[in-house]
Amino acid sequence: MENKKQKYNTLLVIIAVLLWAASAAFAFLLILPILDSIITIYATFWADPNPIGQAYYLGASIRQLGVLTLAFLFVVGVVGGAEHHARNFNTPASWHFMFITYAVELSLFLFTLFF
Questions:
Q1: pTM for this structure?
Q2: Cβ atoms of 94 and 16 closer than 8 Å
Q3: pLDDT tier at 1, thresholds 50, 70, 90
């Protein structure tokens, strides 16, 4: 009986680590498409036809600030998520946080598809 429970706990640890690692990798891979979507929206509404004009430099600045912001959010999300899962392992709060993480990532992915 104890051996079966130990295997179950080991399996839960492996699943949680794999889900966390997959969400971290997916979040990292979403950074560039999100930036491309932001710049596409900017260029659609506010860019001018001059290739190297005022709008170009503002677009480059928006992208640089976006990289900084998304990288900061990525690090906070990955480290904070790992900390939350380590403290609340196999509790409803941990699985709820995992569900919210994947829901946000799916929403951002759909944002990049439509914009």
A1: 0.84
A2: yes
A3: low
